[in-house]
Amino acid sequence: MSAPFLKIENLHVSIEGKEILKDFSIEINGGEIHAIMGPNGTGKSTLASAIMGHPKYEITSGSVTMNGEDVLEMEVDERAQAGLFLAMQYPSEISGITNADFLRSAINAGREEGEELSLMKFIRKLDEKMDLLEMDQQFAQRYLNEGFSGGEKKRNEILQLMMLEPKLAILDEIDSGLDIDALKVVSKGVNAMRGSEFGCLIITHYQRLLDYIKPDKVHVMMQGRIVKSGGSELAQRLEAEGYDWIKEELGIEDERVNVNQEA
Ligand SMILES: Nc1ncnc2c1ncn2[C@@H]1O[C@H](COP(=O)(O)OP(=O)(O)OP(=O)(O)O)[C@@H](O)[C@H]1O
Ligand SMILES: [Mg+2]
């Protein structure tokens, strides 16, 4: 059997000396889509940033491997080249670089010299993906995310996902701020990526997204780690009943990570 696409074991992460992730573990295999849900401030975005190598997040112990390779040893650009992709909760705007230029350099950065995607093939692929995501052609020539509405930014993150074809994608609140039609379009994009060579971790607050993107597993995060896992029925129960029953079941008083610690 091959190594899991993503394996995180007993990960501890601190920011400015404060521990945010505490003994976080997860395993995602090729072809699987996992969802992480959890109340605000429980460490979900911290997890995404730490895996991508954000310099602010200090990994104090634990391991992250992709196909058995140590991710924590890689530079940030090497992580992307190894097939990791992060759609951030708050995508940044970059003035002076068009969306199309950004995508083309990002694709070619991951390829050997001489293997670059030709301009013709790139344009064909871009047209095809923008079509599927029902995006207006003008977005290719606009500066990256500049002046994009909240929903347009999210759609653009999925365009990046489809163009870059990563092995493992982490989508942080890709559904936030989307209208119902956009939610369906974004879900269509993620579902089109499904396959044995793709693994995905979706961070969301809403079960509604998981009606469109059926997860193989659902995890609940509290206090910087996974406290409960199940199938999509777990998301349905959370939607109906909230988180209190889990806190009661596990004897958790405060689910956040940032309490009872010295600053
Ligand atoms: N760069 C940072 N500097 C200081 N504190 C941080 C930083 N990043 C995260 N934290 C703190 O870590 C805790 C977890 O934050 P995180 O963004 O991971 O939560 P989350 O689970 O994604 O919440 P939400 O559902 O609201 O997005 C919060 O208390 C937050 O203030
Ligand atoms: Mg978050």
UniProtKB/TrEMBL annotation:
GO molecular function: ATP binding; ATP hydrolysis activity
Source organism, top-level taxon: Bacteria
Gene3D superfamilies in alphabetical order: P-loop containing nucleotide triphosphate hydrolases
Domain (ABC transporter): residue spans on this chain: 6-248
InterPro entries attached to this UniProt entry: AAA+_ATPase, ABC_transporter-like_ATP-bd, ABC_transporter-like_CS, FeS-cluster_ATPase_SufC, P-loop_NTPase
Keywords: ATP-binding, Nucleotide-binding
UniProt xrefs under SMART domains: AAA
Similarity comment text for this entry: Belongs to the ABC transporter superfamily. Ycf16 family.
PANTHER family referenced in this protein's UniProt entry, alphabetically: ABC TRANSPORTER I FAMILY MEMBER 6, CHLOROPLASTIC
Designated name of the protein: Fe-S cluster assembly ATPase SufC
Species of provenance: Alkalihalophilus sp. As8PL
